[in-house]
Amino acid sequence: QVQLVESGGGLVQPGGSLTLSCAASGRTFNNNAMAWYRQAPGKEREFVAAINWRGIRKNYADSVKGRFTISRDNAKNTMNLQMNTLKPEDTAVYYCAAHSGGDWSRLAPVLYWGNGTLVTVSS
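RE: above sequence
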């Protein structure tokens, strides 16, 4: 059974940092682009960051550029999202996704979704 499991969410004060992790099991995604998405209460799911299969090419939403860093470890079948200078508007459930193909694009289908981890930014 293929699974993507997110961890690392929690409550953090504005300006704080968190690191989210995504662990894959059941198959490897070394040849797939991986990405993070988030869904805030009452809003649609939106793209946050993506990384290509080699971990060289990275894409970020404008709202997180310069604050978030995506990375992956293909040997461990894991992906991380380092989130710095967090803002209340970053509050959302964050989802890990494995895309079809080695390079990410908005049109590339998502093969698998994780169940999400909640990040709450509040004082």
